[in-house]
Amino acid sequence: MRIRKFQADTIREALLQVKEEMGPEALILRTQKIKGSFLGGGERYEVTAGLEEKFEPTAVAKPAAEPTQTVSYGPGSRMASGSAQTWTPPVRETASVGISHQEFAALQQGIDAVRKAAESPKDEIAAVRREMGQMRSVLSMLAEQWRDHAGTRIAETLLPHYQKLLASDLSESIAQKACEETQTRLEAGGMQGEGDPEWTRNVLLQVLSEILPCAPVLVPRGASKAKVLLFAGPTGVGKTTTIMKLAARLSSQGALKVGLVSCDNYRIGAQEQIKTFAEVAGLPLRSVFTDDDISRALDDLRVCDVVLVDTAGRSPRNELHRIELTALAERIRPDEIHLVQSATTRLRDLRMALSAYKDLGPNRLVFTKLDETDSYGALCTLVAEEGIPASLLCFGQDIPEHMGDASPEELARMVLGEDDGCPA
Prior knowledge:
Blueprint: E1 2-8, H1 11-22, E2 27-35, E3 43-51, E4 71-72, H2 101-117, H3 122-150, H4 159-167, H5 172-188, H6 197-210, E5 227-232, H7 239-252, E6 258-262, H8 270-281, E7 285-287, H9 291-300, E8 306-310, H10 319-332, E9 336-342, H11 347-356, E10 364-368, H12 377-386, E11 390-394, E12 403-405, H13 408-415
Parallel strand pairs: 1-4, 5-8, 5-9, 6-7, 6-8, 9-10, 10-11
Antiparallel strand pairs: 1-3, 2-3, 11-12
């Protein structure tokens, strides 16, 4: 076996050197941190790799023989004097972590695949176990890098879950806090469930559910006053469709008297869409164009159990629209204000929209288009950060089937990639 050592500033660079110099068949024998040279400064990484003779590449004519030496890139390294070969230093990554989340996930998947392969014939088991040991060694070093970078000590049993949370776009701070609290509870439980992946998962799900508040729509029957729910949000997120789904569900399944108020006078066809639905569903509808229309509409629908108010969707940056909407809410004085947002929206834009509607005072969050994404960390981050409960989760166009009540347990499963929020 030919054995060589490779040094680099990051574990990733060292592994790339192994692959380039010895090929994909090389075996990782050891990985360790070492001190840099006198001129090079801080810590570096050294990977010892070996290559079986049967994997040695066939000889190929080369312009000149290269001297055997330890390959070293980064600060403190030098080329051998007199060498005619030019060397371009690799671009160092700006982050302190030497590998991406996706690559870390690939390594974790590799371990799982090799574990399954261990069921192969006996003559291959030794090789499989050797490869598992190599990947575990690299994975342990990467885990140590992540811990140092995050400034926290995440237990190795929680690292796969931590990776899933980050991959779902949950904010890093919330993912860390959830894993830390999970580890605290596991340690407080003593030997109970120690080393049991299912037990660890259940505790993490419980922790996540506690930081994801939810408040389903509840309407009392036979109250002296109709409960008024106002729906607002950016254009194109599906407010009108959400209202139609909720109205159909409450009237058919809940046997409640439902009234509709449309204040959307901007979007072409908006009045016709909800008017057609109201006629088919047999629900009273009032369209509002002036302040006087608001009072008459609410008075006409006072016999209903619940009144759902549809508003115009405009850009959150449209200050005039936000002022008009706030004035409308002050006239209507709804019991609940539901801010509707699309689950496909990135976290930065979710935060921006919520900030723009702060003056309106939303106290519920509705998320639509769950069927158009498989990443739910952004919406869960918004719920956890703001403490505003999620009320409804919507997906698809079918009325009223494609809607469900939000629950902390379901959001927790969604952010761990175990639930898509879309019942079959």
